[in-house]
Design brief:
Helix content is about 45%, strand content about 15%. Helix 7 runs parallel beside helix 11 (about 260-265) and helix 9 (about 210-230) crosses helix 10. It has 13 helices and twelve strands. It is of the alpha/beta class and about 325 residues long. It has helices at about 15-25, 40-45, 85-95, 110-115, 155-170, 180-190, 195-200, 205-210, 210-230, 240-250, 260-265, 275-285, 290-310; strands spanning about 10, 30-35, 50, 55-60, 65, 75-80, 100-105, 125-130, 135, 140-145, 150-155, 175. The strands form two sheets. An eight-stranded mixed sheet has the order 5-2-1-6-7-8-11-12. The protein has a four-stranded mixed sheet with strand order 4-3-10-9, covered by helices on one side.
Length: about 325
């Protein structure tokens, strides 16, 4: 790989996924800027460690800052903050983002693109999904939990091409789609069938499909969500999505999903923009989604517990 001085990547949100992609970009000799809170920047300002699927441990030296002005020279910016923080992040970086910069969201949940369009030109935004998994262990090491594919789409072919080239140069599996909204819904449905179950059962993804009880709940969650998506004009094959969700669980078997990580660390989860969004849309069409509503209520109860320090795994 050769150094490409024309590409400088900003990563807004230096959590597990942001740091994992930061590793791949730095390995491809691409300049990166990790932008996050002052506390997180302090944790990684001298570099961070990452353990890949094959077990190798690497030290990553990347520039980290909590000053949004440092993003001014970045021509591709990845948004990796939690979906509930998208508005705050977009507001913070908008004034210091080049007009020529391409922004890409690979976040969980639905509605992130619409928020970004309030602050940036729509043709500068690339929407994406990924089946790559990552989490941060108790020692602060970024763990690659699953190696998957990035799927991206955009109205602007040039913006899409820039991101696709960057991902390929970094050695990542990436493809494009002309139906990005459908890809987002598909990812949300799969997330709704994995993340809450992993969080509620306190288990990594692979163990979800080892339980006949969780497999049954997972199937009902998907069937309900597919019926809602159909009202939005997206026709998914239920059996194919069930098979895909289980395949994701198998391929990211070691990964402790983001909702589980959040519950264990006493943080807010993204349940509102995943299961909550599906429920809200269902209500608009008069559709009853009891399995999703029960899962949402249980997750809400966990979040209430975390505030008092009662929830298991929270200290």
């Amino acid at each position: 790989m050769q150094y490409n001085p024309s590409t400088k990547v900003g990563i807004v949100g230096a959590g597990a996924m942001g740091c994992l992609l930061g590793y791949f970009f730095s390995r491809a000799m691409t300049d990166i800027v990790l932008y996050d809170t002052q506390k997180r920047v302090k944790d990684i300002q001298n570099g961070y460690r990452i353990r890949l699927l094959e077990g190798t441990l690497h030290q990553v030296h990347a520039y980290a800052t909590h000053n949004s002005e440092e993003l001014t020279t970045c021509n591709i910016i990845f948004i990796f903050v939690k979906s509930y923080a998208t508005e705050e992040a977009a507001h913070a970086i908008a004034a210091h983002t080049s007009k020529e910069a391409v922004l890409i969201t690979l976040q969980n949940g639905l509605g992130n693109k619409e928020i970004l369009e309030k602050y940036f030109p729509s043709n500068s935004i690339v929407v994406g999904t990924t089946t790559i998994g990552a989490y941060i262990d108790t020692d602060g090491i970024v763990i690659e939990g699953g190696r998957g594919t990035v799927t991206i789409g955009s109205r602007d072919s040039k913006a899409r091409a820039k991101v696709l080239t960057l991902l390929h140069d970094a050695g990542l599996s990436a493809k494009e789609t002309d139906r990005p909204h459908e890809a987002l819904w598909k990812k949300a449905i799969i997330n709704a069938a994995i993340n809450p179950l992993g969080a509620l059962a306190r288990i990594p993804n692979g163990e979800i499909i080892e339980s006949k009880y969780l497999r049954t709940i997972q199937e009902h969650l998907i069937r309900e969500a597919v019926s809602v998506a159909a009202k939005e004009g997206m026709l998914f094959d239920v059996d194919e999505l069930i098979a895909e969700a289980r395949d994701v669980c198998a391929k990211t078997a070691q990964n402790r999903c983001s909702m589980l990580q959040d519950i264990e660390k006493g943080r807010r989860t993204e349940i509102d923009t995943i299961t909550g969004y599906i429920i809200h849309t269902a209500h608009q069409y008069g559709i009853i989604v009891p399995y999703n509503e029960v899962v949402f209520a249980l997750m809400a109860a966990c979040e209430e517990q975390k505030k008092t320090g009662v929830a298991p795994g929270i200290t």
